[in-house]
Request: fold
Amino acid sequence: MTSFKSFQLELDTRHDKYERLVKLSRDITIESKRTIFLLHRFASAPNGEEILNESEVKLDAVRRKIKQVAQELIGEDMYQFHRAISPGLQEYVEAVSFQYFIKTRSLISVEEINKQLIFTAEDREETTNTTSNCNDKQPHTWSLKVTPVDYLLGVADLTGELMRLCISSVGNGDIDTPFELSQFLRQIYDGFTFIGNTGPYEVSKKLYTLKQSLAKVENACYTLKVRGSEIPKHMLADVFSTKTELIDQEEGLS
Reply:
């Protein structure tokens, strides 16, 4: 019976840790989404630098949550808890890559993301209570690596945000951004097609959504090129929204 009680204690401890990680992942997802919503205001904001600065503050708050995840995983195999934290990490990758694209018009690498997720003991923010006794002697640095799969899934979700950025840019009279986004999305799509069905199931499943986003941006570029001079700038966004709805309906019927 003593052995079974120790097994029960170990399983309960692991289950409690898993639940704490799920809650942290949910918080990371919520804050990352709020950052993405904020960044969508960049195209119409009179001062885009303020938006970028505010987004950096929000991402710092997200990274503090990720530090709590890293501390929870000290001495643990991350992959045993990967399903608990994966949704939050994917959303964080989407948010940080969206901000990086707005700043540099390029794609952030997984190495650059992981460099931002190395934490030191000098940070004084509050952390969640840990239950295992082995955490009494904690190292001076914590890190959490985004896996290649989480990175790819986050980048795939980024394409949807770039498609929305394309439509909002046109509505604000910016007719250069859609062509730039079209080239960028085409490069991402080509990269994903190299993976094809050989990668994880989740990655191949995202390929269809990525293709939809690319088609909508290319359709917007086609309309700008062919009919851009005929349609007043303030009506372009409405035209693209209507065309996007028609594409969605056709894909739903096929």
Residues 124-137, 250-254 have pLDDT under 50 and may be disordered. The CA atoms of residues 6 and 12 lie 10 Å apart.
